[in-house]
């Protein structure tokens, strides 16, 4: 997509986790994240602030390397 329409924003829409974050953000501009932020990684649970912080800290570290 980026080669065909270079100014298009590409988002990874599902399945982005700590374990694949760098791989996903290597090809996408951002991500739609849901279950990864939930307590115990379960959709029906509340958001776990600790999980959000850990994820976003890794995003910041990755982006600072670019």
TrEMBL record:
Pfam families for this protein: BtpA
Coiled-coil intervals: none
Superkingdom: Bacteria
PANTHER family: SGC REGION PROTEIN SGCQ-RELATED (PTHR21381:SF3), ZGC:162297 (PTHR21381)
Family: Belongs to the BtpA family.
Protein name: BtpA/SgcQ family protein
Organism of derivation: Ectobacillus funiculus
